[in-house]
Amino acid sequence: MSRAPQPRPGRPPARWRALVALLLGAMLLVTACSSGGGDKKKTDNAAATSGTDQPGAPGASNAPGTGGDPAQVTVTPADKATGVEVGQPITVAVGDGDKLESVKVTNSRNEEVDGKLDADGKTWKPNAPFTFGSKYTVTAVASNKVGPTTATTTFTTLTNDKKITASFTPEDGATVGVGQPISITFNAPVKDKAAVEKALVVTATPAVQGSWHWFGSQRVDYRPKDYWATGTSVKVDLNLRGVDAGNGAKFEQFKSFTVKISKTKTVSVVDVDTKTMKVYKNDALVKTIPVTTGEVPKYATWGGIMVVQEKYTQTKMDSQTVGLGAEYLIKDVPSAVRITTSGTFVHGNYWADPAIFGAKNTSHGCVSMTPDNAKWFFDNAANPGDVVQVVNAKEKTVAADNGFGDWNLSWDQWIAGSANKG
């Protein structure tokens, strides 16, 4: 009887070996699938990280590793803008969370323009309006945690085909008497008086109650309610550049001038009845001068308050220049002081009998006296802005715009002539 073969010691039976081989094959298959899936996941993650550099993606940044967008800056006027108003401010808009660091403006000569940001931190204004027909460059810098962003733009202001200018009295730096108004004359009619008047700023130290008053459309004067206080300092700003006069003509001037009021109040009172001139210094009488005034009724002297405009050590007087025909022609009138534009003077008179002064009115409307007295008046009481007042006149009061007869209007009449009443 034979026996079945016995397995070798330490070696599993064949069916076990087959089962083990089958299990190992399955494990290898699972391992191979897992390894392939892991490599694909790693590749997908690398593509998402790269995608964060795209604008709008979460955590987007143009500066790798910092996170967020760079600062945004938008300047108005826009780049290459033309026809920009000279008074237009520059505005700079920045993004939420961004900070405007600086604004710099240069002209065509690369000179920096003086100016500053308003309290809002977004509006830059030049200290003086831009000039007409000029090119400017704006450089604005904003920043955030990503870093700074710089915007550079250029613009050109409009040209000024119609120009209007202003001349003024008294001149810059002048010292004048207490009766001197500030007088501005324009070379063309002004239609928008309110806009122009608003651009004329008077600052007095000590402060005064004062107002502008228009005489027609080409002259505007400023005076206080009462005579200036002695020693007053006056600064006048002509902030006119870019202001439209209302007829399409625009101003180009942007300047200031200063005036000093004399430390002495000088008022000379001419009395037609007594034929005298009394000169007061700081309200104290210092001299009484015999005079002759205009012959009544033919040449009666204007009444009212007049102000010294100019003076000549010697001048020619021709009656034809004031519409009096061939009444007189005197080539060397001494110590002549003009007090009206129409031709009223205080002057020396060497051709008349000295006995008439203080006794008879014989002139053609002027106030005259001996040459010696005229020279004293010329030297001591006849500076521009000093006051000459004619009382007891047989002629009407001088017109307010005849020279500087401004003081002949009451305060209510004066402020009624302002374009910005109230």
Widest sheet: strand ordering: 21-20-19-27-22
First-residue to last-residue Cα separation: 144 Å
Helix-strand makeup class: mainly beta
Beta-strand proportion:
35-45%
User: Number of helix segments?
Assistant: 4
Please bin the fraction of helical residues: 10-25%
Unreliable spans? 1-66
Oligomer: single chain
Query: Mean pLDDT score, rounded?
Result: 86
Q: What's the total count of β strands?
A: 27
Shape: elongated
Biggest sheet record: 5 strands, mixed
Radius of gyration: 45 Å
Can you characterise this structure?
With 422 residues, this protein is mostly beta strands. Helix content is 14%, strand content 36%. It has 4 helices and 27 strands. The strands form 7 sheets. A 5-stranded mixed beta sheet has the order 21-20-19-27-22, with no helix packed on it. The chain is elongated, with a radius of gyration of 45 Å. The relative contact order is 0.11.
Short summary:
With 422 residues, the chain is mostly beta strands. The protein is 14% helix and 36% strand.
Spell out the key features of this protein.
single chain; 422 residues; mainly beta; five-stranded mixed sheet; four-stranded antiparallel sheet; 4 helices; 27 strands; 36% strand; elongated; disordered N terminus
Provide the fold topology.
Elements: H1 14-51, E1 73-76, E2 81-84, E3 90-94, E4 99-107, E5 115-117, E6 123-126, E7 135-144, E8 147-157, E9 163-164, E10 166-169, E11 175-176, E12 182-186, H2 193-198, E13 200-205, E14 210-214, E15 219-224, E16 233-239, E17 250-251, E18 254-261, E19 266-271, E20 276-281, E21 284-290, E22 304-307, E23 310-318, E24 329-338, E25 345-348, E26 367-369, H3 371-380, E27 387-391, H4 411-416
Parallel strand pairs: 2-8, 9-17, 11-18, 19-27, 25-26
Antiparallel strand pairs: 1-3, 3-6, 4-7, 5-6, 7-8, 10-12, 12-15, 13-16, 14-15, 16-18, 19-20, 20-21, 22-27, 23-24, 24-25
